[in-house]
């Protein structure tokens, strides 16, 4: 009887742990979806230039821009600290994925509006770059 109770307790504990892992995993997927936008272009260097311009327009100072790794890191200081890292990756066909990862005082930013604001500004910069408007 004790073995039966112990095995049932282990199964319940295992199910609870698995449910927590699934919940945490789905929130990570949702966060990644907020942080990523795809663009129909093969111009990785132009996309990186648009990211740099967007970050600067939003008040960030570029800490590091590595065109080889397609990664840009920037910091914004105004009575607080926001760090943002943006990566550009090739996707299927003629698409590039831009992923922004922001931290506020070393804590991840999970607010969708923050990422939406960044991508709205980047969309405008990408449009201007595509149409060669200065």
Which helices and strands occur, and which strands form pairs?
Elements: H1 2-35, E1 36-40, H2 44-57, E2 61-66, E3 71-77, E4 81-90, E5 95-104, E6 107-108, H3 112-130
Antiparallel strand pairs: 1-5, 2-3, 3-4, 4-5, 5-6
Helix pairs in contact: 2-3
Strand segment tally: 6
- Provide the CATH architecture: 2-Layer Sandwich
Rg over alpha carbons:
20 Å
Beta-strand share of residues: 25-35%
Q: First CA to last CA: what distance?
A: 78 Å
**From N to C, what is the helix and strand string?**
HEHEEEEEH
Structural class: alpha+beta
Outline the biggest β-sheet. Answer: 6 strands, antiparallel
Find the CATH superfamily.
Kinase associated domain 1, KA1
The overall number of domains is 1
CATH topology: TATA-Binding Protein
* The top level CATH class name: Alpha Beta
Poorly predicted ranges: 1-25
Average of per-residue pLDDT values: 81
DSSP summary: helix tally: 3
The coarse overall form would be: globular
Fraction of residues in H or I helices? 40-55%
Give an overview in words.
The chain has 134 residues and is α+β, with helices and mostly antiparallel strands. It has a single domain, classed as TATA-Binding Protein (2-Layer Sandwich). Helices cover 50% and strands 30% of the residues. The chain has helices spanning 2-35, 44-57, 112-130; strands at 36-40, 61-66, 71-77, 81-90, 95-104, 107-108. Strand 4 and strand 5 form a beta hairpin. Helix 2 packs across helix 3. It is globular. The N and C termini lie far apart (78 Å). The relative contact order is 0.15.
């Amino acid at each position: 009887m004790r073995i039966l109770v112990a095995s049932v307790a282990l199964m319940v504990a295992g199910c609870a742990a698995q449910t927590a892992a699934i919940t945490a995993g789905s929130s990570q997927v949702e966060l990644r979806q907020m942080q990523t936008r795809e663009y129909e272009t093969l111009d990785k260097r132009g996309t990186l230039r648009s990211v740099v311009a967007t970050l600067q327009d939003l008040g960030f100072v570029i800490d590091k821009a590595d065109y080889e790794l397609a990664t840009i890191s920037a910091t914004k200081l105004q009575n607080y600290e926001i760090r943002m890292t943006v990566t550009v990756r090739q996707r299927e066909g003629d698409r590039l994925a831009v992923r922004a990862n922001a931290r506020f005082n070393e804590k991840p930013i999970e607010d969708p509006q923050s990422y939406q604001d960044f991508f709205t500004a980047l969309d405008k910069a990408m449009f201007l770059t595509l149409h060669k408007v200065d």
